[in-house]
Amino acid sequence: MTGWIIFGCIVLLLIILFRQSITVTVDYENKLDVKVKFLFFTIYPAKPKKKKKPKKEKVKKQKKQKKSADTVTDDNTEAPDSGEAAESAADITEDGDTAPEASEKQKKPKKKFNLDIEMIMDYVESAWPPIKKLFKKIRWYDVYVDWVVASDDAAKTALQYGGICAFMYPFFKWLTTYFTAHVKEVIIEPDFSKEQQDIFIYFVLKLRLSTALACIIWLAWRVLKTYLKYNKDSEPAPKSKKKSKKQAKKTKAVKKGN
To answer: Which of 73, 143, 192, 241 is most buried, judged by most C-beta within 10 A?
Structure first.
């Protein structure tokens, strides 16, 4: 009975764990700041580890070892005799085995990588549905945009303001229609008195761990299927033992008949 209780507790903990979301907070105010969290743990940015100061004794030992290694290398490095080099060269030319081997290696043509457009399109088609589902499951929260457009020239600021508005407002409309997005405030204003832009962007992204793992497994399965589709014919199929036994029986029967 206790075993079933422990098993049930483990299953409940796993369900609760996989139902939790990975949160990504993006904050931009003249500097980009990204934080990735899961539950109470910060995945990114990682805390820098404190460097431990080495002890004086260890440093002295390392210096002594380096000095001893340098002296040994100086003693062992001696110039080889010219006679020995000539004998080794003569042996190589007399045998005649190494030279042709090197020439054969040089003559071997390199394998060329041929791009097949149909194969690439098949991979893209197989990978697109899980990627599309993964992006659709991302939830956007607390979206704030405060953009003050400014530059040296008034005409330039007007053109920049028009271009930013033409991009940003349709983007947020598309975001709210195709994603679960909670846009709090979007303010884009021109300021002809300033010379530098002032940008503030803040949003939070959330994705459940279970959906992320499911999409990754689905993606891997679909890509593997396409890979096996193109590499099935190239690999020779192994002969089964049953067929070889049947062939042996047939040959024996033919011999007895003769």
So the answer is: 143
